[in-house]
Amino acid sequence: MSNILTIRPLTPENFAPFGEVLDTDGAELRMINEGTTERFHGLAHTEIDAAGIAIVSLFRGQPRHFPYRVDMMERHPLGSQAFYPLAERPWLLIAAEDNDGRPGDPQAFLAHGRQGVNYRANVWHHPLMALNEVSEFLVVDREGEGTNLEEQSYPDPYFIEAADWT
Amino acid sequence: MSNILTIRPLTPENFAPFGEVLDTDGAELRMINEGTTERFHGLAHTEIDAAGIAIVSLFRGQPRHFPYRVDMMERHPLGSQAFYPLAERPWLLIAAEDNDGRPGDPQAFLAHGRQGVNYRANVWHHPLMALNEVSEFLVVDREGEGTNLEEQSYPDPYFIEAADWT
């Protein structure tokens, strides 16, 4: 099947077209609070339109089953959306470039358990994909007036094969 | 000693003068992503002035030693600051009402390991107080131009006695 997605380990470089990787590894480190706290500064920078504010929510995601059929994507035109895992377990994410208002070919990434991402505003992505177990994420996105969700289906779906995600 | 602080378990009610408690317990629950994800919506609402943006950072705090001397507080006039623990361990926090530009009597709270807080802009609070072990927190606060840190000392310090924090 030609529509099987390749999974790449998530890095700031390969995710750059879509947003930021939240990772202490490589982050700017500031010592604060009289040396009692290490601040890994600015792992994510929110983009929120003037009508909205950034809010913090908690997502609890069911694990996905494989082979997994990727048949839709979504985007949030008015604000970025950041995810950070609360359990140190790997998780999957899928993003795509825009192609005349529709998502282009999906690009799949495997994040390790201490990596989050921040999708920039209006970046096509797949809904949260937890692996193996019910998994919680802290999420920073937008609340406010206006339509901040767009969804599109792929006419020909893509697939992710079963794998050992541990 | 009259300056020994009483520690109260953190609740949305007793923390209300200072900000929000981030807790799935009691939060608004929305089912999203075709029923695969529970969204505990809007646990924290950022307050960021027009010159700034909300950013996500990670704080790694050294555990505090007891008896602990509370001799200073800080506040961030231009933005709220939210903390959520990445390990499910209890942590301590201290906030105070404003008293003519200085912090009033400190109020100490014990948060359990699935509780965060969001200090509203300009609320006096003590720097991060981890307990027992080095502990990480996801932090959502402000980045931007302007002076967003004010510190004040207490002329007569307060104390927190040693306790079993587990």
Number of strands of chain A: 15
Strand content of chain A: over 45%
Total domain modules of chain A: 1
Uncertain spans of chain A:
none
Helix content of chain A: under 10%
Biggest chain-to-chain interface with counts: A-B, 41 and 41 residues
**Most strands sheet of chain A:** 5 strands, antiparallel
Shape of chain A: globular
Helix/strand order of chain A: EHEEEEEEEEEEEEEE
Verbal overview:
The structure is a homodimer of 166-residue chains. With 166 residues, chain A is mainly β. Chain A has a single domain (7-160), classed as Jelly Rolls, CATH 2.60.120. Helices cover 2% and strands 52% of the residues of chain A. Chain A contains one helix and 15 strands, in the order E-H-E-E-E-E-E-E-E-E-E-E-E-E-E-E. Chain A has one helix at residues 12-15, and strands at 7-9, 19-22, 28-32, 37-45, 52-61, 68-75, 81-85, 91-96, 98-99, 102-103, 107-111, 116-119, 124-125, 135-144, 150-160. In chain A, the strands form five sheets. Chain A has a five-stranded antiparallel β-sheet with strand order 2-12-7-14-5, with no helix packed on it. A four-stranded mixed β-sheet of chain A has the order 1-11-8-13, with no helix packed on it. A two-stranded antiparallel sheet of chain A has the order 3-4. The longest helix of chain A is centred in the N-terminal third of the chain and has 4 residues, at 12-15. The first copy, chain A, is globular, with a radius of gyration of 16 Å. The two termini of chain A are 25 Å apart. The model of chain A has no long low-confidence stretch (mean pLDDT 97). Chains A and B meet through strand 4, strand 5 and strand 14 of A and strand 4, strand 5 and strand 14 of B.
